[in-house]
UniProtKB/TrEMBL annotation:
InterPro entries: DUF1659. It comes from the Bacteria. Residues 2-71 form the DUF1659 domain. This is DUF1659 domain-containing protein. It holds the Pfam family DUF1659.
Amino acid sequence: MAVEENLKDTKLKVKVNYGEKEGKIERGSKTYGDVRHDATKEQLDSAYGHIISMQEPIGEGCERITASDITKTE
């Protein structure tokens, strides 16, 4: 029995640093949906750069998040 994987969703998660508040570094993230499944790492990095350039918090990186259906086939 074979196992099949079908890609359902791809998102871009942008991680940011809001700076120090009350002695602790405050971090956050924002996730953007509707990312093309075939987007290259260069395209994602470019999108990250554009997003960060329009925001006040300091960018700390980005992640590609994917969701897949995994099913058994006969």
